[in-house]
C-alpha cells in the first residue's frame, strides 16, 4: 500500500464541505441546487479516485488472468 | 414733448415652444412680416395659420398636405408646461397659458368636466398663440387730461372689445409707476389686480410686460377680493383693474375710493350711455367715483380715443 | 507557497459571497430610497406645483446615491431639452441600471411611472404616484424577504466554495 494518504484526506475534506453546502442550501429552501451540488461533488471525487480504481482493476486482471 | 410710440414685439420668444419644423416654416416668410405676426394658430394635422397684421397666411402653403403632426402637438404642450402638465391645472381650467414674453396661448380640445364644471382640457387639438404687443407711449398724449393738480384722477376706460383698452391701461400703469417728468408727476405706487393675467401677462407672478419700478401685481386674482387685498397689504396710490362689471367689483372700487386710493379701470361698452345703463355699476355713479371717462372709438384703429369726459359733461349729457 | 494560494482563493470567494449578499441588501435600501424620492417628488408636484426639472433637482438633493444621481441626470436632461419627459426618463433609467443593484422588475415599475410623468393633471398624477408607490412597496417586500433568506447563504456559500476549491486543488 503505497497510496497517498493525502487523497483520502482530500476526499474526506470534500465530503465535509459539500455536506455543509448541502445543509446551507437546504436550509434556504434551495434543495434542487443542493442536490446538484452533491452530484457535482460526487463526480469530482469520482474523477479523483479514477486512477486508483484503474489500478485496482489492473491488479485484479493480473491476478485472475495471469497476464503480465 | 411726448415720447415716441414704441412697439415691443418679441415674436422670437414664441419660437422656444415651437417644434423646429414649424419655426422653419415661419422663418421662411419675410422678416418684417414676422415682426407683424399677431396670432399663430396651430391645429392638429392642419396647416399653420398666421395672422399677420389682420391678413391670414397659411404655412407651409395653402392646400399643402403637410400638417402639424401628433408628436409636434405633444412637443408644444411639453414645452409650454416644462414637461410638467400638472403645473398648469389652473391654466387648463381657464383655457389659456401665459408664456415668457407675456404671450398668451389659448387651448382647445377635449374638455373634462366634473359634475358639470370644467376641470380642464385634456387632448389638446388647437393652440392659438396671441403675440403680446406692448405699445409703450400710447397714453402719453392723454396724461395731462387725466390728472389734476399733480394728482391722478380715477378713470374709467370704456370701449368695445379690441379697441385698445388693455393696451392703454397697461401704458397708464407704466406711466404712473415711472412718473411723468413733463407734468412734474412723481412715480407712484401702482397695484395691478390682474384677474385674467392680461394686463401684466405674468409668468410665475413676474410681469412679462415692461412696467416701471413701482408696480405690484396680483396675478390671476379675483378682482373684488384682489382690490381689498392690495389696499390692505400693499397700500397702493393707484389701483389698476381690467374689465369690471360685477356687483362685487363696484363695491370694491367704492371701498378703495373710501380708502383714498385712485382706481383706473376698464369696462366693456360702446360709450358712456351704454355703461350708464348697467345696474351692477350703479353705485359708481351715485358716489361720483370716477372723475374721467375715456371712450374708445369702435370700428377704427385700436387705440383711437373718441372722447375724454368729465362727470360734469356726462351729467349734462344725461340731463339733455 | 501552497498555503498562501489557498488563503488567497478562500479570501476571494468569501469576498464574492459577501459582495453578493451586499447586493441584496443594497437593493432593498435603494428601493426604499426610490420610494422616498417619489414621495418627495409628489409633494413637490402637488403642493408647490414645481416644474419637473426643478422638482427632480430638489429631490436629488434629498436622497442618497445612486437614486440621487438618477434624478439629477433626469433633471439635467430635461433642462437641456429632451423631446419628451419619458425619453429623458428612459435614458436616465438606463444609467441607473448600470450603477445600482435594482433588478429588471424594479426598473420596470419605475419606467412605468415615467411614462405618465408630466403628461397628466394633478389628480391623475397623484393616482399614478400612489400606484407606483404600492408597486415599489411590493418589490421592496419581496427584496427584503429575499435578503433575509439569502444573505447568510451567500456569505457561507462563498466561504465553503473557496474551501472546496482549495481542497480539490491541493
UniProtKB/TrEMBL annotation, chain A:
Transmembrane regions: 6-25, 32-50
InterPro entries per UniProt: Spore_III_AC, Spore_III_AC/AD
Signal peptide: none
Keywords carried by this UniProt record: Membrane, Transmembrane, Transmembrane helix
One Pfam family matching this protein: SpoIIIAC
Descriptive protein name: Stage III sporulation protein AC
Protein species of origin: Texcoconibacillus texcoconensis
TrEMBL record, chain B:
Keyword flag Nucleotide-binding: yes
MF term (GO), any: ATP binding
Every AAA+ ATPase domain range: 151-290
Pfam families: Spore_III_AA
Classification via InterPro entries: AAA+_ATPase (IPR003593), P-loop_NTPase (IPR027417), Spore_III_AA (IPR014217), Spore_III_AA_AAA+_ATPase (IPR045735)
SMART domains found in the cross-reference section: AAA
Highest taxon above the source species: Bacteria
Keywords recorded for this protein, A-Z: ATP-binding, Nucleotide-binding
Record's protein name: Stage III sporulation protein AA
The species this protein was found in: Texcoconibacillus texcoconensis
From TrEMBL, chain C:
Top-level taxonomic group: Bacteria
Pfam family of the protein (one): Spore_III_AB
Name of the protein: Stage III sporulation protein AB
Lineage of the species this protein comes from: Bacteria, Bacillati, Bacillota, Bacilli, Bacillales
Entry-linked InterPro entries: Spore_III_AB
